[in-house]
Structure formats: structure tokens, C-alpha cells
Amino acid sequence: MPKAVRYHANSVVYFKGDMNDRVYILKSGKVSLNYNDIETGQEIHDIINTGEFFGVKSALGRYPREETAVVLSDAAMVIFSVPEFEQLVLKNTRIIMKMLKVFSNQLRRMHKQVRNLISEGKDGLEPEEGLFRIGQYYLNSQKYHQALYAFRRYITYYPSGKYASEATTHMEQAEKALQGGGAPASMSGMAAGGGSTPQSATQREELSDTAKSYYNAVSLFSQDNFQAALEEFKKLVQANNSEEYVAKSQFEIGRCYLGLTQYDKCIEHYTQMIKHYPRHPDLRDALLYVGNCHEKMGNTGKANGFYKKVLSMSSENEVIYRKAKRALRELEVSK
Amino acid sequence: MNVDLSMFERFAVTFQPGDIIFCEYEPGDNFYLIQSGRVQIVKILGDIEKNIDILQPGEIFGEMAILEEAPRSATAVSLDKVKALEFNRENFEVLMKGNPQIALKLLKLFTKRIYDQKRRFMILTLSNIEARVADVFLMLAEDQPTEDPEEDQRTFSTNVEDIAHWAGMSYAECKKVLNHFAGQRRVEIYEDHIIVKNINDFQRFVSSQRKKEKVE
Description:
The complex is a heterodimer of chains A (335) and B (216).
Chain A: E1 3-7, E2 12-14, E3 22-36, E4 43-48, E5 53-54, H1 56-61, E6 68-81, H2 82-91, H3 93-117, H4 127-140, H5 144-157, H6 164-181, H7 196-222, H8 226-239, H9 243-259, H10 263-276, H11 283-296, H12 300-313, H13 319-334
Antiparallel strand pairs in A: 1-6, 2-6, 3-4, 3-5, 3-6
Chain B: E1 12-15, E2 20-22, E3 30-36, E4 39-45, E5 48-55, E6 60-61, E7 75-78, E8 82-88, H1 89-98, H2 100-125, H3 129-143, E9 154-156, H4 160-167, H5 171-183, E10 187-189, E11 194-196, H6 199-215
Antiparallel strand pairs in B: 1-8, 2-7, 3-6, 3-8, 4-5, 4-7, 9-11, 10-11
Helix pairs in contact in B: 1-2, 2-3, 3-4, 3-6, 4-5
């Protein structure tokens, strides 16, 4: 049972270095937590307000107290054991939320202080440069999948960044390497794993051919020629020449079905696609389209669910967020 | 953690072995709870890939993204086929209400991380490089309690590179200090472990050095 206790002014609730597993909440009076700043050594006095917890971190983390808790004026408080404290906050998650916020701020500050002391500067890279260098590391160590991931992320976040063109070149390099490694079975005339130079030359040509057919299909789509576009995209998937274009084509196939008002096919296709590419760059658009299909088929409940899912995956300043928001509003109006 | 997570199935994501889950320096907006498979946390320093941790099912990672979007401080790679629950700030609330046990687990994780960072900071504040290396061993000793407190000798499954990382010094510099200790027969260095002959001797050395530096 939590215990109510009173402390007189100038008494000490616990000393720095003490081991105990109690958590306190201040009901009235004044308590100060005294400790030395680890960076400057300066003595700090943190005043606890009534209604605030203290002693939480060292109790939960089971480590020695890091501060001395001194009572400044007669105080009343309630003492919880760790299990009692856990019971309390499990019923009141707002407390956990608030503490998470405080702790994560403290942790950020600690990370920064540690970084400041490590003079090597390796850790102090700007995110933009850091991300690019990671891609380079993976490319150099021939981990092409990982390199592709890093460069793709770079291009997503810094489309006109200072390494954007280099990142694009590296991406192509990594893609080529991946395709070279996985000797496609469809290329009948070619000796398996043959000399790398001539092969990479053909690879390049093929890649641009793939790109050409892809953009051809996209252009058919933009002319509302959905059936023809669908067939072209399907061919691209079957040819399986480039991982990137297969993924892109898979997405477009769903859009073609939507254009052809084959809603159930569209839903089925995107469900498969999402299973296969859980991190597809157009994942949220695909989900939005699935929502559209459900809406057209009269399943407003399901449509609602998909739109909300898209919302939960996007932030307010993104186009997709506004699209989903609008779809939801229209769904509401049509009810 | 014995809790029912079936209601969170819709947040499940899967990764193939070798997939990058997130990359250091990317803006972080999700955090993960591993359901099956292992996840390796690495940091790339120059041209080496340093293992930071290997996480098991039930563990949480990427948690710094819970409350603010800041660049990731390390890279997470799936070692096996990994199934994880993916949460972000928006659906975190759902998670909290549906399963406050996970939130409590997170809170505890934060207390541990804060403590570890502080401990690390204390090492780095020592200006004497020998004391710094000795203090790294003290930190490692705190993390692996012994059965026999009378025993002075301690064995750590670590290597020079790791010690250099924690001490915030270059490999060469750290190697020099360790060789010096080895010359004094205070440590024995092997490929995959290091023996400290007398951990209490290190303890005394570090605290006297701390006091001395405080006076200066």
C-alpha cells in the first residue's frame, strides 16, 4: 500500500548514492533535488512542485540515487514501491506519456554531451552527408541492397542535395551489380556469370530499354488507355529486368485496374503488392486507392479504415495526407 | 513480457534477412517491437561497421522517435526474417491505451539508456587516458555482476576496438595504453577477451584520479 509520510524542513528523504526502490509524489511543502551538473560540476538545485513525482528514474532503473532530496519546508508525500507505482501508472497512461517526454529530452541532452566530448568528429556529421556516406560504405563493401536503401533514402530526403547526382549514379551502379549477380534466367544466350565488362554494357542498354517501355506504358496510361497500359506494365513485370521497374510497374498495374473500374482486381492486386513490398515507396497511395475501390463498391466502412490508415502514416504537410483527408470528408458527406 | 499483442496485428511489418529497417541519419518517425527474428544495431564509422547490439524478440528499438522526429543515431538491420510491430507518434496513443505495459516497458528502457549514457559520459570526462581505459573496465564490470565478490580477477569478452570506442580514443592510442597495462601485468589481452588481474586496483586508480582532476 502506498504510504503517506511527513518530513520536517531540513531533513533528507534520500542521499545521493543510496539504493532504494521507492518513488515519491509530493503532496505539500517544498523539496529540492541537489546534484552536480556532470558537465560543469556546478551544483544544481531542482525544486519539486507539489503533485510531481521524484526518484522515479533510479527506482525504475534500479541504480543508485543520483541526487540528494532535501526537504526545504515541512512536506507531505506519498511513497510508492516500484510495483505500486507501476500499478498506478498503468491505470493512468498520461503520467507515462509525460515522463517519456521528460526522459527522452534528458536522453537527447546526454547524447549531445557525449558527442561533444568525442573530439574525433566522426559522429558530428550533418545528416545529409552522413546518409550519403553510409550508402558509400555499403557500396564499397559490395552490400548493394543496403547501398540502394541508403541512396534511395538520400534521394527521397534530399532530392536536390549536394550529393544528389552522385547518389543517383551510385544507385545505378548498385542496381547493375545486383542484376549482374543474380544472372537472370531469361537471358538465354548469355554464359552464366560471364566476363563482367561486356555484360555490364548490355545491362546498361537493357536498363534503358526497360525504362523506355515503362515510360511508354505511363504515357498510355496518361491518355486513359488503361487496357493497353495494363498489358505493357504486365510485360515489364514478367520480363523482370529491373527490380526497381518491376516494383514501379506493380504499382501502376493497380492504377490501371482502378481506371478500368475493376475494383475487386485492384484491391486484390494491391493486397498482393503490399505483401510482397511492405515498404513500397508508393505504399500509402496504394492504400488510398484500395480505399477508393472499397468506396466505389459501397463498402464505406472499409474505405474509411483505409483512409484513416493513410492518415496515420503521413504528416499533415504531405500531399497524401490532404488527399486522404479529403476522401474521408467526402465519405462523410455522402453518408 | 507476457501480453496479448494480437490486436496490434495491423501494425505488423516483415523484413527479409539483411534488410535495412532504418538507416543512421534518416529522420526517425517509427519505432519497433520485435515479434520474431533478431535485429542488429550497427554504426558505420569511416570504413568499418561496428556492432552496437543484437536485439531479440520482445525488445524495442528506434524508441527515440516516439516523441520527436530526429535523425536516427544508428542503423537497424534484420539478421533473420524479422516480424515487428511498427508504431509512430500518431498510433502510439492507440498502443498506450490498448497496452500500457508496452509504454511502461519503454519508460524503463529510457531509464536504463539515460543511466548508460551518464556512465559513458563519466568515462569521457577523465583527462588521464590510462584512467579512462581503466574506467571502461569498471563500467563493463558493473554490467556483469560476479558470483564471487572476493575475486579480484575479472574476464571481459571484449577487444581493443570496443575499449577504444567506449574510451573515446583512437585504436592506436588505446592499444598503447593497454600494452602499457599488460607490461605492468595488470591486464592480459587475448583475441576475443581481456583479463583484468585486479579490478579493485583499477577502482582505486580511477577514484584517486577523479579526485585529483576535480581539484585541478
